[in-house]
Each structure stands twice: as structure tokens, then as C-alpha cells.
Amino acid sequence: MLGRKSRKGAKGSPDYGHFNRVGTEFGAKNDQLGLTVYATMKDTSKAEPLVSAVSAGASLKVMSLDVTDSESIQACVDTILKESASIDVLINNAGVGFVKTTEHISEDELRWNTDVNYLVVVRCTKAVLPHIRRACSGHVVNI
């Protein structure tokens, strides 16, 4: 999520869902642009590749987030909004897949896959969109 520090056009901060190579690249690029990066992941002990990719002194905040839990999402959004004046960009970057054929996927695996690949996008967007609409500014990017 990109959250401006003030409403006077200052640059903001992204939240990338679960960080992977794509999220790390976004984090490093936004750091180069002088943005505050809110990197969220379920297991923050895996943040080292991101932390190493951004320069020293960068404005990077790693936050724990379970994107399958609506309360966790709302708590994360609330925390970011307390620290930033707005959320300018939400980047939905979480996703999972299988290395098996369709007929070998169990119902539980299918539900989990649908939850992470579709419902997470809906949950995160629902939590952020009211703030973007209120600000009349912002973007949602789905990867």
C-alpha cells in the first residue's frame, strides 16, 4: 500500500502482500524513488532478501499479515493509516499454484488455492478501496 505522509502530494508507501522476487523488486524500486515501503508477509522472518535489496536508511516497514484473515488485513490497513495520511497504492501480489494435474487436486487444496488467488485480492481491495475513494486518488494493482 502506498500511504502519503501528508496530503500535499508527498510520495507514499506500498504494501505487497506476500513478498517474493517480484515484491522484492518493487520494494527496491520504490525505495529508489524515495517512497516508504510497507512490506507485508505472513512470516516476517523471511524478510531478509527484501531488507538486503533496499538501501541503508530506506523507509521500509515489514509487517506481519495473514492475507487469508480479514481481521489481520483490517488491522494492517489501520496501522498503515495511523502512520501515513493515506494509502495510495495496494499491490496484490500473493498467489499459489500446484504442480499436479487438475484431477489430482483435492477439494481442500482447491479451496485454499481459490482463497489465496482470488478471495485474498477481494479482501485486501475491500479493506483499502474506501480509503482510496475518500482520497479521490489511488490505485489497486493485481499481479
Automatic annotation (TrEMBL):
GO terms for biological process: phosphatidic acid biosynthetic process; triglyceride catabolic process. Gene3D superfamilies: NAD(P)-binding Rossmann-like Domain. The keyword Oxidoreductase applies. InterPro entries: NAD(P)-bd_dom_sf, SDR_fam. Pfam families: adh_short. Keywords: Oxidoreductase. The keyword Oxidoreductase applies. GO terms for molecular function: acylglycerone-phosphate reductase (NADP+) activity; triacylglycerol lipase activity. One of its GO terms (cellular component) is lipid droplet. Transmembrane segments: none annotated. Belongs to the short-chain dehydrogenases/reductases (SDR) family. This is SDR family NAD(P)-dependent oxidoreductase.
